[in-house]
Batch of 2 targets.
Target 1
Amino acid sequence: MAIVVLSPGILTSVQDGGRNGYQQFGVSPSGPMDAHAFRTANILVGNEPDEAGLEMTVMGAELKFTAPAVIALTGADMGAMLNGVKAGTYKALPVQAGDVLKLGFAMSGCRAYLAVSGGIDVKPVMGSRATMLGKNFGGLDGRKLQKDDVLEVRPAAGELQHLETYFTEPEQIPAGTRTLRVIMGPQEDRFTEDGIRTFLGSEYTVGQDFDRQGYRLEGAKIEHKTDSNIISDGVVTGSIQVPGTGLPIVMTAERATVGGYTKIATVITADLPLIGQCKAGDRVRFKEVTVEQAQDLLKEEADRLESLRKRVQDPAHLPEEGEEVPQASAPAAAAAPAAEAAHEFEYTKDVTICINGKAYEVTIQKWK
Amino acid sequence: MSEAVIRPAGDSALLVEFENEISLEVNSRVRALKYTLEQSPFDGMGDLIPTYRALLICYDPLKIRMKKVRDEVLSRLGHMDQVSMPPAIVTEIPVCYDKEYAVDLEHIAQLENKSEEEVIRIHSQSDYFVYMLGFAPGHPYTARFENPFSFKRMENPRLKIPSGSIVVQLALSDIIPFDQPCGWNIIGSTPVLACDYRKENPFLLKAGQWIHHTPVSREEYLDIKKQVEAGTYVCRTWEKED
């Protein structure tokens, strides 16, 4: 079984749960920007939650499957179509040899995830299949996917017994200002009281520089007591650095492992998916919580995923009457051209979007 | 000796800070704490990131809560004077100071008002300490404890310098593992790889060890480079004498 990349989208990469154990050598964990959506996708195809899948950014890929498999899509809704028919998210989708899955522009959020039963087979580097795009290793040759790439898929542990129970309510990515809960520190004592007030009381906007390494935010400047330099120390995913500009930078999956700027606070692990689904122009604010509260929230998140895993495996878990259920796809060759032609869009427009200073030309299509 | 300060760094890590200075003495406490934790890890312990004066201790909050991690750290800190560390290792880094690779050697000699031979002698005569790794995988932050040179960074950083470059300023000398922008002067080049993903442990160096630069000719450089490419070259190492 393999997946052929017909079109890679803007930025699609292989990710797994991340690379742990090598941070003392300068290797950051990488892994998915929205771990919640990523793990949900894996659970919906019967995989371990951290199995290797695909992360797609802003505009998704077009992929062809060479053999039957089960896939699931979560995270940002990119209007996926399977052989030209709307595919749906947050449910197991059986695909046949020759089927084509095409994703478009993210209607909300920033990143979509595709899990495939068995998981994507690339050679692990330091125990992980996650791509480290910034340092060119891991995943498929250490890079984002390109046209004509072929991704091998490992055989699934076993066939899913009752595909129709592998679904969950699609999750909405919040619109408007998102509240990121934070634990203050470790260097909050390097900021003035005014500085702390500004940080916790202002709304910040995601700037053009947002990627897997970090999110630069724009808004009110945060005042330091003296300066922004520290003797370099360790950084975690979610660390909020405030350099001399006074503007915060949220460090994400491909962040550095050490840094020499003051860190005013850290985004709690349970809220990291919220920042991972932000793109330029989105707004965030920060709210202080305690470590105990953050750890309780993380436990709740783990329990939610575990109960989802149990629920989808339960033969009695069936959709309500009238709900859409996963169905085998229409035969690829016959369905594709007809469906494509029959499809009507409310509008189609070409736009230029910017990610981290690079411009991309994309076509947005919205269904009627 | 002042008390260590323990601060949360989010919900999955604690930062243990020692005195706010860059010195071998302060760093030895970072290393001792890391060593005791590695020797007897607590359940749920994750990555340990040592830096100049602090140790970041990652943990899995689904396995252990912050208060317990704090207790674990405090108990280790209470027994730090009983820790006997293994001897530090010195790794030999072969360096070619030939003009072709040492593109700034002439400039450095002018800045220091010394001959090129003298600059090479100074750079290769005593060991540099590896405080930590970071910036890029395998990239060492090294220093020595007298000031071998007086010059700082260049005014205009280069947009790209090749991997293997040995770059210097003041008491610092780094090995560049991957092509990158850099504002330091290039004193030479090593054929060995600070990070080689083909290997199970890709990293040449570890925080808390030393490196020694040994001058090699252009011919030796090319010969070692071939062995490195074939995966057969092993750097010489020895125990650091006190």
Target 2
Amino acid sequence: MGKVTFTILRFDPEKDKKPHYQDYEVEIRRPGMMVLDGLNQIRWEQDGTLAYRRSCREGVCGSDALNINGVNRLGCITHLEDLKTPVVIQPLPSMPLIKDLIVDLNDFQDKFFLCKPFLIPKKPLPDLEQLQSPEDRRKLDGLYECILCASCSSSCPSYWADPEYLGPSALLNIWRFVVDSRDVGADERLQLLNDRHGVWRCHTILNCIEACPKGLNPTQAIGGLKKALVSAKF
Amino acid sequence: MKAYQPKRHYRWHPGFVVWVLHRLSGLGLAGYLILHIWVLSHLMRGEAEFKRVMDTFESPLIRLMEIGLLGLVLFHGLNGIRIVLMDYGPMANKESYVKYLAVTFIAIVVLFLIGGAAMLQTLLIN
Ligand code: SF4
């Protein structure tokens, strides 16, 4: 069924000073092959030294976010048929490189934890569960689904330029709790954001909504936070 | 190691392209503002001095550039309104943002053609 060329960034910190690119031929063996299938073929049959992250291979774990032909996507749900060849595969932009396609996500995750990604409930706690109306529950749609793949943050020019910027992913996850009717931590969360490295660093470039593999909208979430900050002031 | 130097640069989505243009037009306007204040500052040195500076700006080339200035103002202003609406309205949307961009651009071009034609006419008459 033909072959596809993969051009992959390679970097071994023990041997290489600089990253370089290496070409591999991937055989198309069945319809509907994904980029991750191609990477697996290379690693299992041609070159066992190729390093990349993967886990669930169905777009749920968020491990294999990669820059594929210049756009951030998940390797496991990107069809090879939809891509121009050669398929250029690079690690997520702007993140520190560890090895081959693996980047250091510590800073990204620290920013996520900074936003207190857990429910801060009203006290005293009710005896049973905390109820929420269906309308309030619906407000969380498009927010709670985030799989923390980092596609959005590493696609954002503001994030590239400002290492302190929290980034679309962390901000979307803050908004997810700010709009939750059961959460009372909005004020302390919003305080984190009201500076130049918080929401005001977003210039609505919209790379994040193009990148998000779950179809979420971080820009709109950031817009919600901006509105909340402005209305808290006036 | 720090972030790598990409072989393939990040794709230029329309949102990124207009952001770059917005920055550039902003720089252009800032430059104009400085020039404007510099020219006006000659007022303090008397009428004759001011007139001398103003005369150097009377050339047709500068007049043509003023039409470009109109373009910058229109682009920066109308696109700025679009950005505000995107922040505070529901316009940041993968499906529709390119449509809003198109509407903004059409408005810019129409206003530019009307204003530019009028400016060109006065330029040609004088
Ligand atoms: S918002 Fe989307 S792109 Fe960003 S981390 Fe979450 S799932 Fe990934």
